[in-house]
Amino acid sequence: xxxxxxxxxxxxxxxxxxxxALHRGGWRVTVLERSPSLEPVGAAIALAPNAQRxxxxxxxxxxxxxxxxxxxxxxxxxxxxxxxxxxxxAAAIERFGGPxxxxxxxxxTDLLASRLxxxxxxxxAAAELADPGAAGRPALVTAGDQEFEAELVVAADGIxxxxxxxxxxxxPGPRYAGFTTWRIITPxxxxxxxxxxxxxxxxxxxxxxxxxGRVYAYGAAFTPQGGHAPDxxxxxxxxxxxxxxxxxxxxxAAVEPAQVLRHDVFxxxxxxxxxxxxxxxxxxxxAHAMAPTLGQGGNQAIEDAVVLAHHLTATRTDDGxxxxxxPGALAAYTRDRLPRTMDVVRRSASSSRAPAxxxxxxxxxxxAALIAAGRLVPGLLLRGFDGIADWNPPATPHGAAPxxxxxxxxxxxxxxGDGPS
Length: 421
Description:
CATH architecture: 3-Layer(bba) Sandwich
Largest sheet: 7 strands, mixed
CATH topology: FAD/NAD(P)-binding domain
CATH superfamily: FAD/NAD(P)-binding domain
Mean pLDDT: 90
Distance between the termini: 40 Å
Number of helices: 13
Structural class: alpha/beta
Number of domains: 1
Low-confidence stretches: 397-421
CATH class: Alpha Beta
Strand content: 15-25%
Radius of gyration: 21 Å
């Protein structure tokens, strides 16, 4: 039996999920990661029911569901603490087949890496796509003085993807989405709190508990690109959010300045012609970077990985050859993923408009509309996740049904999908 070779560029959430799914499908996978270790950049990630069902394909969904941190409702508040809207956790579970699970990115990275044989992930390996390959020749990736031929390359190399520029030179890449984000992980506050998101004037904040007792919090401000605090980012958070309701000031006070992550947000406003060329597929942020306001960036990368492996497994011939029609499988991957992911890109951008409002009259009108919607149309905000969180992965080649979800654990489905991921 011929064992086809796959090279994955990038060991983020999408890249590791793709590697694990391909390994299960009979591929010999090598993951090349430019960082010196697998320690992820970022604080936490919210895995919605759609991503959990995708992870069932690598038998990881139930392990993730078991990490749900709480069973409660959520709230949308004003900076002074007034509740604008209640998010019904039980309704979210019923609507989407399960809870949203918030976990540290390092936890998810460890779980995904555990699905691969030892030695399959190579760190400190800055990879470049030298040849995307074609039906009659393998793809070629270089990393330093090493060359890797492969029947498949999966480019999961992030927002500023070099592989994307190689595949589609001259095409517009991600552009600034209009706001920057800060992320922190802190000890739990002294008093219990309800998971919440708080909207101000051109700013918003979210506070969510982790299973280990700590808190993941994020802030965002609609501000020009490339800004930096004149002193440090903790001081900047205190200037922006220090007068908002508790526990926000307490959480900021508890973090060390060096632990505050700040990143400008970019999104792929203009769709690429395809998510593949030759034997190379783009995945996750490399293909469709999106604003974090629906919390779907990592979730869509996981979906990408599972759908990609599904199509490649479907090309396996009776003699076990998975290299039968890789370009055809990648074309099917593009057909499945490009329309869906660009719809999520657009919906994520649209969902950032309400918290972006800065004028006092506009903010007052927005808040009044939210209060009225909560009273008159319960569950209105949950409808914004219809067609996203209720997604199911394709059936396996053997016809196995997708996981239906356990309905256990956290009932909160945040206004913004638990914030920047």
